[in-house]
Prior knowledge:
By secondary structure, this protein is α/β, with parallel strands linked by helices. The protein has a single domain, classed as TIM Barrel (Alpha-Beta Barrel), CATH 3.20.20. The protein has 13 helices and 9 strands. It has an 8-stranded parallel beta barrel with strand order 1-2-3-4-5-6-8-9, surrounded by 5 helices. Helix 1 runs antiparallel to helix 12, helix 10 runs parallel beside helix 11 and helix 12 runs parallel beside helix 13. The radius of gyration is 21 Å and the shape is globular.
Amino acid sequence: MRMPSSSSRRAHARIAAAGALLAVAACSSGGRTESTEAVLPARSSLESAFASAFTVGAAVNDNQFTGRDARGAALISAQFNTITPENVLKWEHVHPRRGEYDFGPGDAYVDFGTKNGMTIIGHTLVWHSQTPAWVFQDSAGKPLTRDALLAVMRDHIHTVVGRYKGRIKGWDVVNEALNEDGSLRRSPWQRIIGDDYIVKAFEYAHEADPAAELYYNDYSLENAPKRDGAVRLIRQLQNAGVKVAAIGTQSHVKMDWPSPAQFDSTINAFAATGVKVNVTELDVDVLPRVTGGVSADVALRGNATASANPWPTALPDSVQTALARRYAEIFRVFVAHHDVIDRITFWGVGDADSWLNDWPVRGRTSYPLLFDRNDQPKPAFDSVMATARMLRATPITP
């Protein structure tokens, strides 16, 4: 039997200690995790609570960063210290037609982050989804050659990254390039350029802003086959001389997946490559599965049935409590690994903003975040804050 590393043993010990403290807190208040409101300052924020561990952020939409959603903008500035754009820097938005860029929304996003003193993340440069068909075709609609597509990629990356040089800290350079078995996805990028399109994307991003952090980002990395594929990919990039600052594990999770052990082993595996770990798109789906698996592939679709949308008006108290416990379970792992985690980002701010309201079934009422549809903190917020309080109360040594 292979013995766990000393860092892994320390992490397991931290998780156990944090869990025991949370249990004591719950028991002393009749088992209600929401009772932590009584001992936390009224204006406690996620940003301040985890300041000694990692930054905490959210994916933001254009209504929020332009101020049209004033309540959402105020909540973001009060609670978070890092932001990621949900859509405005994806190819179809910022570069919708050949030779035409639209930087208005992207500029507003960066201005919002700068005004609020936040760490600003760029998302995403190379992805098979939300990329216009023209990118891969010539003016006659025929597939581009390898060299021609590389030229398109380089122009896009140099133009977008170059515009925000020194203002955006880091970029999700390549997004979701792996299949569930850890092999490379047969995307148009891979089919036309070859496997080295990922290396080229990182090289172009580094040319455009040598000081920017560069990330690889994907979902379902807590599953061993895909995790192992990501580790291989990171090592291949490193062997090619590419500097990867962090791997982003999206963590679109379920109530029963992944387990704390899967989170733990995944973080350890990525940390062993020498890169940092970012949790980039965190949410917890409480609704029934309708696709038969745990993949967060945006192309998946399910049937709109009554059973797929069981709580159209409100989440039952019992499920609220279960969600709070689930978030506490997840964050105990994160604080245990604070020495290798740089950032935790939620994919959305309040429940009304979540992509899960329309994926994989349109029109569902989803409840995956820490703030409700009125941007008020849920019991899950309090349970997460409790883990931060225990981190402060129990010094953790790396």
